[in-house]
From TrEMBL:
Record protein name field: ATP-dependent RNA helicase
Function description: RNA helicase.
All copies of domain DEAD-box RNA helicase Q, residue ranges: 25-53
Positions spanned in the full protein: 17 to 263 of 759
Residue ranges annotated for the Helicase ATP-binding domain, each copy included: 56-239
Domain notes per entry: The Q motif is unique to and characteristic of the DEAD box family of RNA helicases and controls ATP binding and hydrolysis.
Family stated for the protein in its record: Belongs to the DEAD box helicase family.
Motif (Q motif) on chain: 25-53
Length: 247
C-alpha cells in the first residue's frame, strides 16, 4: 500500500515529461524496489539521463513507450529498469516462465544488454537467457541451439536477436510466450534497416495481444518505426518520449 501510494504520487500525468531538461533526478526518487535500487547503486548509477527520467516514470505506470534518443543517451536502463520492476511487482518467479523479452538487432548489442542486465539485476532472482546463435550451420551451433531449448522453460527474461527468437518460437516445444508481461524492441530503426521486418511480424503473432506492455526504443523516429509501433503496440496507453538535447 505504501508503495502504491508512492507510485500514485510520483506518476506523471500522461503527456507530461517529468524532468526539465537540465534538472538532475536520482533513481532513488523513483518508486523502485530495493533490489533494483541496490543493483543501480552497486554499479554507480545514481542520476537518470534525460531519456531515463522522461520515460521510466511512464513505463512504471504501465504505459507503452515509443521512445527516441540518440546513441549513448542511456536507453538500455530506460527499458531494463521498468522491466525488472514489472516482473518484481508481479511476483514473477522461475516457474512462471518467460515474462519479458528484449529484441535487439545484432548479437553484439544483445550481448551488451545482457551484460548490463546481469549487473543491475544481480539482487533480483530472475533467470536470464541470451538467444542469439546462428541457424544450425554446424554441429557446435546446433548444440548451442539444443542447450538454449533446454533452458528456455526455466528462463524469465530473454534477450534475443529476431531470427533466433523466431527459430525458438517455431521449433522449441516448451517455448511459451502466452503470459508475456513485457516486450521490448531496442534499436527498432536498426531492426528495420537490417531487414527483420517480416520476422518481427511473425514473432508478434506468437505473443498475447492483451495486457502485455510494450517498450519500443530507437535512435531515430522514422515513418517505418512509427509503423512498427502500430504493429507491436496494441494498447491505447502509449507515451511518446523524444529527447533531442545536445549534451
Ligand atoms: P544507448 O542505448 O542510448 O546508446 P546506453 O544505454 O548504451 O545508451 O548507455 C550509454 C552509456 O551511458 C553506457 O556506458 C552506460 O553505462 C552509461 N549510462 C547510462 N545511464 C547512465 C546513468 N544514469 N548514469 C551514468 N551513466 C549512465
Ligand atoms: Mg542502446
Amino acid at each position: 500500500a505504501a508503495l502504491n501510494a508512492r507510485i500514485a504520487a510520483e506518476t506523471p500525468e500522461r503527456g507530461t515529461v517529468p524532468s526539465l531538461k537540465n534538472s538532475v533526478i536520482a533513481f532513488s526518487s523513483l518508486p523502485l524496489s530495493n533490489n533494483t535500487l541496490r543493483g543501480l547503486e552497486f554499479n554507480a548509477y545514481t542520476n537518470m539521463t534525460a531519456i531515463q527520467s522522461a520515460s521510466i516514470p511512464h513505463a512504471l505506470a504501465g504505459r507503452d513507450i515509443l521512445g527516441a534518443a540518440k546513441t549513448g543517451s542511456g536507453k538500455t536502463l530506460a527499458f531494463l529498469v521498468p522491466m525488472l520492476e514489472k516482473l518484481y511487482r508481479a511476483g514473477w518467479s522461475t516457474q512462471d516462465g518467460v515474462g519479458a523479452i528484449v529484441l535487439s538487432p545484432t548479437r553484439e548489442l544483445a550481448g551488451q544488454i545482457f551484460a548490463v542486465l546481469r549487473k543491475i539485476g544481480k539482487f533480483h532472482s530472475f533467470t536470464l537467457g541470451l538467444l542469439m546463435g546462428g541457424r544450425n550451420k554446424n554441429r557446435r551451433e546446433h548444440n548451442e541451439f539444443l542447450q538454449e531449448q533446454q533452458s528456455i522453460p526455466n528462463t524469465n527474461i530473454l534477450i534475443c536477436t529476431p531470427g533466433r527468437l523466431l527459430q525458438h518460437l517455431e521449433q522449441t516445444p516448451y517455448m511459451n510466450a502466452d503470459s508475456l508481461q513485457m516486450l521490448i524492441l531496442d534499436e527498432a530503426d536498426r531492426i528495420l534497416d537490417m531487414g527483420f521486418r517480416d520476422q518481427l511480424v511473425r514473432i508478434l503473432d506468437y505473443f498475447p495481444a492483451g495486457e502485455r506492455q510494450t517498450l519500443l526504443y530507437s535512435a531515430t523516429q522514422t515513418k517505418d518505426v512509427k509503423h512498427l509501433a502500430t504493429l507491436s503496440i496494441n494498447r491505447k496507453k502509449v507515451e511518446y518520449v523524444g529527447v533531442h538535447d545536445k549534451d
